[in-house]
Design a protein that fits this description.
mainly beta, 7-stranded antiparallel β-sheet, 3-stranded antiparallel β-sheet, globular
Length: 164
């Protein structure tokens, strides 16, 4: 049994955490007339009633303080064909949305074209948890196309699901 004060090497933690595959999502909104967004692999459903989802954001993020203040956030569940978009949104470049197809909702949520699913959300709660914050989002609108394969993050790599 691990004691509550046990300290693990971050590389070992990443190695073990990486054994669990996760989807990849872009979280974005229009802020001051321009799209602002970040990439997350910690996106998950929370509740059906009320409709809630969550994601985790590192305290070191310089994007989240700007993005989190937006009234509506778009969550785009990236498709297997959007690996380039994922890398671009995960980078620190000046224009993360250059040459990406996207649209906005009436309330300013940014949604990427070609995603396998999307949700329009707003921040419901934010909980400090270690070196990250858990962000709980209320879902206002959503849709998905299960014929579009999702992008998956596993063992520190983007991967695609094979259809049997």
């Amino acid at each position: 049994m691990v004691s509550p004060t046990q300290v693990f090497d971050p590389r070992r933690l990443r190695h073990v955490f990486g054994a669990f595959p996760s989807g990849v999502a872009a979280v974005a909104a229009v802020v001051d007339g321009a799209p602002v967004g970040l990439l997350v692999s910690s996106f998950t459903s929370v509740s059906l009633d009320p409709p809630l989802v969550s994601l985790c954001v590192a305290h070191s993020s310089s994007t989240w303080p700007v993005l989190g203040a937006a009234p509506r956030l778009g969550v785009s569940i990236l498709s297997a064909a959007q690996e380039h978009a994922a890398r671009q949104l995960a980078g620190r470049g000046a224009d993360r949305f250059a040459e990406l197809g996207w649209r906005t909702s009436d309330d300013g949520a940014v949604l990427l074209e070609g995603a396998s699913g999307w949700l329009e959300t707003s921040v419901e709660a934010q909980v400090r948890a270690g070196d990250h914050d858990i962000i709980v989002l209320r879902v206002h609108d959503l849709d998905a196309d299960h014929d579009i394969s999702p992008l998956v993050f596993h063992a520190s790599q983007f991967r695609r699901l094979d259809r049997a």
